[in-house]
Design goal:
- With 99 residues, this protein is mainly alpha-helical.
- It has a domain of 40 residues: Histone, subunit A (Orthogonal Bundle), CATH 1.10.20.60.
- It has three helices and two strands; from the N terminus they run H-H-H-E-E.
- A two-stranded antiparallel ribbon has the order 1-2.
- Helix 1 crosses helix 2.
- The longest helix is centred in the middle third of the chain and has 24 residues.
- Keywords: ATP-binding, Ligase, Nucleotide-binding, Protein biosynthesis, Transferase.
- GO terms for molecular function: asparaginyl-tRNA synthase (glutamine-hydrolyzing) activity; ATP binding; glutaminyl-tRNA synthase (glutamine-hydrolyzing) activity; transferase activity.
- This is Aspartyl/glutamyl-tRNA(Asn/Gln) amidotransferase subunit C.
Length: 99
């Protein structure tokens, strides 16, 4: 089992710019030791003959075919707009740029 010392936790805390109290260092060293132990167990299970997977089940494409369909004309799209100009929606200027 991996073991992380109180001094190593203090060093990590300094690198992370954390000001930890002595009792916090003791507490975190135990927690980090448990985390490292769990990671070591996972590393033991991982084998070279097992292919990496991203999903437990096969993923299939569920999209429909992309077929052209009738849509709005520019005039009908702009019919409900509060303001239009040169075949486009006219919106208030927000960045303060010159036109």
């Amino acid at each position: 089992m991996p073991s992380i010392s109180r001094e190593e936790v203090a060093h990590l805390a300094r690198l992370a710019r954390l000001d930890l109290e002595p009792d916090e260092l003791d507490h975190l060293s135990g927690q980090l030791d448990q985390i490292l132990g769990a990671v070591a167990q996972v590393a033991e299970v991982a084998a070279d003959d097992i292919p990496p997977t991203s999903h437990a089940l096969p993923v299939t494409n569920v999209f429909r075919d992309d077929l052209p369909r009738p849509s709005l004309t520019p005039e009908s799209a702009l019919a409900g707009a509060p303001a239009a100009e040169d075949g486009r929606f006219r919106v208030p200027q927000i960045l303060g740029e010159e036109q």
